[in-house]
Amino acid sequence: MLSQSSSQMPLAVNHISVDCVVLGFDGEKVRVLLIKRVGEENGQVFHDMKLPGGLIFTDENLDDAARRVLRELTGIKSINLLQFKAYGSKDRTKNAKDVHWLERAIQMKVDRIVTIAYIALVRINRGLTNSSGENEICWVPLDEVKTLAFDHNIILADAIDVVRRHAEADPSYLFNLLPQKFTILQLRTLYERVYGKPQDVRNFQKKVNQLDYVVALDEHEQGVAHRAARLYRFDRKLFKRVRR
Amino acid sequence: MLSQSSSQMPLAVNHISVDCVVLGFDGEKVRVLLIKRVGEENGQVFHDMKLPGGLIFTDENLDDAARRVLRELTGIKSINLLQFKAYGSKDRTKNAKDVHWLERAIQMKVDRIVTIAYIALVRINRGLTNSSGENEICWVPLDEVKTLAFDHNIILADAIDVVRRHAEADPSYLFNLLPQKFTILQLRTLYERVYGKPQDVRNFQKKVNQLDYVVALDEHEQGVAHRAARLYRFDRKLFKRVRR
DNA sequence: ATGGCTTGTTGTGAACATTACAATAAGTAT
DNA sequence: ATACTTATTGTAATGTTCACAACAAGCCAT
């Protein structure tokens, strides 16, 4: 793990945090869960947004910390938490605004914070209960995300990339974003959003039909002003049994 | 990044290190670069091995720290350093042996060390210069790796997995392990070792031949007691131009 | 120089997966 | 009844993957 370094540079004693990129899908767009931040700069109050995150406790594993943060801020008990990258660049806190906010928040002098970033895919319609009181949370469509705190824009962009690659390797991954009963249109739209290109309607349907772990239900959607689409569900047990 | 936590748990102030999984290929087996460690337990001297790694300095980026550690320990200036996971489990230092060694090495009380793990693929025949003096380094075939320090066996196993997946996504990745001039047999053996299954000779050759960034040379291998195989080289510029 | 040994090099057909493409069915609203 | 909207379905062409074996080239021993 480490060597008796020949150098006499000072060792860093850093804070470690976790940040979560929580993604949801509303049937039309992929949205990311952000937290409103209220800060102060030169006596001016400012509002912006950041990813949900927090410092880890002594005696707490990284994954547990991510789970706790998510639960505290949103009530989400996420099952598919994926650690994807550590961010430790010195200039991730180059913005004075961020440093002021941070030092007031944790009431400590901050040298640097290394953050471990996680991705969680959730069903967007689940109820969110913000047990930490103060912070307002909201689902923002990916294409409407403005400048975020710290390097959170970079983290978010990296996360999308990881989701894309992970979904390719694991065909079950994106189902975490869909409601339990969904139409093929919803599934197709999701794939189009994630991969950024249109999917052929017939070929897509054909492909889904030959996945035995996507099972057709005897139900159709309700309250639409046209022919109602059949509902499907994802069968995780069947998926694990088949594994391709 | 963080929230004013409602909890009153103590915040952790942790050490942060980087560990490098350096992989090479000798034409037959994939090898990992390990460092011999000499420690003491109950007055008994013990010898074992660990991944190259070290604590990060204040003011040092994670990637820079990994690069520095690698350079100090091996002389390698690795260009393809890939950060792949952070390890922060409390019980990664559950072995008393490790804790003793660690606290003597850095002359500090150690609560926990979060380590950021990197992968570097290098040409195994490059000269290694261990500028840190003391520690002996060696290339160990993957299937001969014994129990390592800390959780380094886990890190190594994870790394192999990441290499496999990364190689699928980026066909240029594994060429970092080959000498500049190589035979198709070497390339094929490498793929067989990484993916753990035999590759059909003809199909493999055919596939390589239709990659225009693997260019045939007018040279053949020397000093073999049979028909000499043609040499090839990987053309990175062509690869970047094509990108499939 | 010959024959034997070892490894290098090459092609074809079958099975399978991917792509492109448009007409009809089912339900709602007027 | 008609218009409107979205759902659902098949086929042919193309490209990719896979399985499989005979001949070529160079070295060595005699």
Describe this structure in words.
Two copies of one chain form a homodimer. The longest helix of chain A has 18 residues, at 152-169. In chain A, strand 1 and strand 2 (30-41) form a beta hairpin. Chain A is built from six helices and nine strands, in the order ββββαβαββαααββα. The two termini of chain A are 38 Å apart. Chain A has 244 residues and is α+β, with helices and mostly antiparallel strands. Chain A folds into two domains: 15-169, Alpha-Beta Complex (Nucleoside Triphosphate Pyrophosphohydrolase); 178-242, Winged helix-like DNA-binding domain superfamily/Winged helix DNA-binding domain (Arc Repressor Mutant, subunit A), CATH 1.10.10.10. Chains A and B meet through strand 1, strand 4, helix 1, strand 5 and helix 2 of A and strand 1, strand 4, helix 1, strand 5 and helix 2 of B. Strand 1 of chain A pairs antiparallel with strand 1 (13-25) of chain B. The structure holds a DNA duplex (30 and 30 nucleotides).
Observed structural traits:
homodimer; 9 strands; alpha+beta; 28% strand; DNA-binding; 244 residues; two-stranded antiparallel sheet; Nucleoside Triphosphate Pyrophosphohydrolase; 6 helices; 2 domains; 7-stranded mixed β-sheet; Arc Repressor Mutant, subunit A
SSE layout:
Two copies of one chain form a homodimer.
Chain A: E1 13-25, E2 30-41, E3 44-50, E4 53-55, H1 62-74, E5 81-87, H2 96-106, E6 113-121, E7 137-141, H3 152-169, H4 184-195, H5 201-209, E8 214-220, E9 230-234, H6 236-242
Parallel strand pairs in A: 1-6
Antiparallel strand pairs in A: 1-2, 1-4, 2-3, 2-7, 5-6, 8-9
The structure holds a DNA duplex (30 and 30 nucleotides).
